[in-house]
């Protein structure tokens, strides 16, 4: 498998978010988004 990096390009970020949505873990998606929102502030 491919390790998830927490400093990916925007395209990778979207793909990772899609993977989390496919897994159906909404909390994981929210946490994922919060990490990026916090990092970009």
From TrEMBL:
Indicate the secretion signal residues: none
Q: Which GO terms describe its biological process?
A: potassium ion transport
Report the Pfam families cross-referenced here: TrkA_C
* Residue ranges of domain RCK C-terminal in the record: 1-38
Q: Which InterPro entries match?
A: RCK_C, RCK_C_sf
Q: Which GO terms describe its molecular function?
A: monoatomic cation transmembrane transporter activity
Q: What is this protein called?
A: RCK C-terminal domain-containing protein
């Amino acid at each position: 498998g491919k390790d998830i990096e927490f400093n990916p390009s925007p395209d990778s970020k979207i793909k990772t978010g899609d993977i989390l949505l496919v897994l159906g873990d909404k909390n994981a998606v929210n946490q994922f988004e919060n990490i990026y929102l916090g990092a970009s502030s």
